[in-house]
Structures are given as C-alpha cells and as structure tokens.
Amino acid sequence: MTFELVSAGYFGLIGLLAPFAGAPVRRFLVVMPTAFGLAAFTYAMARWLPVDARLWIAPAYLAVGYWLPALLVGRPPAAFEAWLRRTERVRGRSFIVAEIAYLLCTPMPVAAFAFVWFNGSIEAADHFWTAVLLAGFLCYVSLPWLVSRPPRMLEDSLIDVSAVRRVNLGALDRFSHGWNTFPSGHVAVSLAAGLSVLPVSASAGVAFLIVATAIFVGAVWGRYHYAVDAVLGLLVGIIASAIPLVLS
User: Fold this and answer.
1) What is the reported pTM?
2) Which end of the chain is least crowded, N or C, by CB within 10 Å?
3) What are the sequence ranges of the domains in the chain?
4) Secondary structure of the chain: what % helix, strand, coil (to 5)?
C-alpha cells in the first residue's frame, strides 16, 4: 500500500542521510542500520500481514519516524534558532481551551483514522495514512540540520500554569525528544488527518478540522512551537493531504 512505500522510503532516506547529519560516529552507526532495518521490516509486514493489521501499525511508523532524526542531532542550536526567535512576534498566553486542544495532538490522528476505518474503505484508510505519514515525515526529516529548541524552553514570561498545561508539559518531558520540529509536526499531522476525513464524511471532517485548528492555536500561544513553523505546518498538512488524491 502507498503508506507503506512512504514509510519504507522515509526510513531508507534516514539511513542514507545518517552519515551526513553531523552526529557522533557511535550515533549514526546505530541509527543507520536501525533505519534500514525498519525499511526492511515495513516491507516484510506488507508481505506477511493482512491489510487490516498493517493499517493499525501505521501510528508506530509515525512515532519511530519522529524519534530517529532526533538521535542524529549533533550540533547545538545556533543560527537557525536565533532566526526563529527574530521572526517571532507572538508572546505566550496559556489558556485552557488551547491547552486542552494541544493535549489532543497525539490521540487526534488515531481517532480520525478510527473514524475512517469504521466508515470508509481500505483505499480511504490508505489515503489517510499516506497523507498523515507524509505530513509528519516532511517535518521530522530536517531536524538534524535545522536544530532549535521549543520557545517554551527559552521564555520566562509564560503564564498561569494550569493543571492541563502541567499535563502537557509532563507528557512532553516523558515522550518528546525535546527538539523543535520545523515545520511543526503536530500541526501538519493534525491538519492532514482532518482533511483526510473529509472525503469519508464532510461533517466529521469539519469537526476534526476544528480540533486541528485549535491544536494550531495551542501550539503557538502555549509556546510549544514558533508561529512560523506552525504556519508552515499548516502548509505541509495541506500538501500532504492532496498527494494521495493526485496519486489515485
């Protein structure tokens, strides 16, 4: 299926790029065979598992694809992070709705896929994961070269720390690699997921797009992302969601 070609191609690309990322030798010597092994694993699953099971493996491809480039970061934040900070005009203001929305950025794509799974076709499910994985991978692949930290780590001015924000920060401390993805992977993936629901159900698609929009707002105003990488995340999500339609 197309989403498996996208996943295997991405892992293979990470393997090829690993020696050029500037990471310590011991790092790329781990990442490179791991990436090639994941590409082979994806191919093997495409041959051996039924399509139903393979479609539910896709979130794992997205999660692993998020972590692999982070292992190749070998340089401290410098000029690129300074540029991001110069472009920033937003000053953080945490509010409860945006924090709740940002909390949904991980379960939202899985919930959107579950809707497509129960209400659409196998082709629609393949289109869904092709778009979502493309959106995420396009944001993750640049990480070793465009190194920056999220603005929340650099700004002291934020805010009333609500219980929901503490949950968000705790989840990021445990499950995030701590680097800023450029463009924003959370925004791109959420938008691609919402747009990919639309062909199955207009009303459900609009509902998921509202959540994606709220995630965008929460990402910027909660200082989880810079405004420029969140806006570019929207663009990536739109492009990624259009590619499966063009290919079909």
Assistant:
1) 0.94
2) C
3) 2-247
4) 75, 0, 25
